[in-house]
């Protein structure tokens, strides 16, 4: 790990501890897409899992708006969870048929939070 990665890793750990984001031994459900930011979060959490005695699981919401690409993201996340030995909770919600006043991003965030809370 080069110095810039180490510094970022250390800074995030300090932030977690200073803001009491979670306690030792907690169960944490990570809401992940197949994107780079989600994979970076997963990598970080796996690196601190033992130190904080965390129980991690993955939640992935297939938005069903990009056809095969959405299904490929789902398949990829199932593979990642299997490789990492983590439980995964997959849900599908067809956002393409929804009419809402909120933007897609706001509505999708609301649905992710709603479903994640149900899983928890």
Protein described:
The mean pLDDT is 88. The protein has helices at 3-18, 36-48, 68-84, 104-119, and strands at residues 27-31, 55-62, 87-92. The longest helix has 17 residues, at 68-84. Helix content is 52%, strand content 16%. The chain is globular. Strand 1 (27-31), helix 2 (36-48) and strand 2 (55-62) form a beta-alpha-beta unit. It has 4 helices and 3 strands. It has 120 residues and is of the alpha/beta class. The protein has a 3-stranded parallel beta sheet, with helices on both faces.
List keywords for this structure.
4 helices, 120 residues, globular, alpha/beta, three-stranded parallel sheet, 52% helix
List the helices and strands and how they pair.
Layout: H1 3-18, E1 27-31, H2 36-48, E2 55-62, H3 68-84, E3 87-92, H4 104-119
Parallel strand pairs: 1-2, 2-3
Question: What is the typical, i.e. mean, pLDDT?
Answer: 88
Number of helices: 4
Shape: globular
Q: Proportion of β residues?
A: 15-25%
Structural class: alpha/beta
Could you give a quick summary of the protein structure above?
The chain has helices spanning 3-18, 36-48, 68-84, 104-119; strands at residues 27-31, 55-62, 87-92.
């Amino acid at each position: 790990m080069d110095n810039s990665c180490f510094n970022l890793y250390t800074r995030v750990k300090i932030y977690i501890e200073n803001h009491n984001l979670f306690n030792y031994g907690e169960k944490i459900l990570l809401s992940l897409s197949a994107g780079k930011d989600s994979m970076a979060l997963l990598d970080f959490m796996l690196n601190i899992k033992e130190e904080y005695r965390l129980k991690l699981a993955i939640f992935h919401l297939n938005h069903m708006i990009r056809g095969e690409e959405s299904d490929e993201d789902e398949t990829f996340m199932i593979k990642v969870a299997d490789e990492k030995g983590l439980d995964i909770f997959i849900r599908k919600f067809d956002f393409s048929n929804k009419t809402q006043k909120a933007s897609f991003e706001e509505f999708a965030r609301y649905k992710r939070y709603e479903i994640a809370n149900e899983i928890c």
